[in-house]
Design brief:
The structure holds two protein chains of two kinds.
Chain A lengths: L2 E5 L2 E5 L4 E8 L6 E6 L6 E6 L5 E4 L2 E5 L3 E6 L8 E7 L9 E2 L3 E6 L1
Chain B lengths: L4 E3 L2 E4 L5 E6 L6 E7 L5 E8 L2 E5 L7 E4 L6 E5 L8 E8 L5 E3 L3 E5 L1
Parallel strand pairs in B: 2-11
Antiparallel strand pairs in B: 1-3, 3-8, 4-5, 4-9, 5-6, 7-8, 9-10, 9-11
The chains are: A mainly beta, B mainly beta.
Chain lengths: 111, 112
């Protein structure tokens, strides 16, 4: 069964304190790994897609990396506006539609 | 920036009633989806829609659910007879290809 597990469930950081969020996945035939940001009461907002091990993508203070079993979302010198829930998702194995999401990491950046 | 628009933002309905959730996808997108998120739980895939028909549906998407694209712009999710456990945020998404999704802000459905 396809699985996506994110850790930690919640993370509180001081402004400027860098850290990483983890997404472990189990899927047959990875067709991409997606990172989204979700603000309270809003829909997920697309951040990155990674397709192969070793790939990295960056956007402002965020950098996503991918290995064969997990992905990391590194946040460098975060600001309070980076506070959100970060979701990881993969397409299911077998070519099926839809995305399988993890439960997310709730990130709080304190000023 | 183009966006996916969902209405209403919040709907309260009595158990057993029918509800229709509405979405206006981005105009040049070809793939349409509904997802739901029960409070405190994962975002879950319900159904995908392409070329005016359902491409795929999850186990959650049973006979109580249906989708329609009644005209060139709207995409609707109907729940025929709501249950308490249907209370959730429902997200519409659209995409130009299979996974480049843009999600709407969601409809919070509360069944009482």
């Amino acid at each position: 069964e396809d699985q996506v597990t994110q850790s930690p469930e919640a993370l509180r950081l001081q402004e400027g304190e860098s850290s990483s969020l983890n997404c472990s996945y189990t899927v047959s035939g990875l067709r991409g790994l997606f990172w989204y940001r979700q603000d309270p009461g809003k829909g997920p907002e697309f951040l990155f897609t990674l397709y192969s091990a070793g790939e990295e993508k960056e956007k402002e203070r965020l950098k996503a990396t991918l290995t064969k079993k997990e992905s990391f979302l590194h946040i460098t010198a975060p600001k309070p506006e980076d506070s959100a829930t970060y979701l990881c998702a993969v397409p299911p194995g077998g070519g099926a539609d839809g995305l399988t999401f993890g439960k997310g990491t709730h990130l709080i950046i304190q000023p | 920036e183009p966006e996916v628009t969902q209405t209403p933002s919040h709907q309260v309905t009595q158990m057993g009633q029918e509800v229709i959730l509405r979405c206006v996808p981005i105009s040049n997108h070809l793939y349409f989806y509904w997802y739901r998120q029960i409070l405190g739980q994962k975002v879950e895939f319900l159904v995908s829609f392409y070329n005016n028909e359902i491409s795929e549906k999850s186990e959650i998407f049973d006979d109580q659910f249906s989708v329609e694209r009644p005209d060139g712009s709207n995409f609707t999710l109907k729940i025929r007879s709501t249950k308490l456990e249907d209370s959730a945020m429902y997200f519409c998404a659209s995409a130009t290809d299979n996974y480049g999704y843009t999600f709407g802000s969601g409809t919070r459905l509360t069944v009482v």
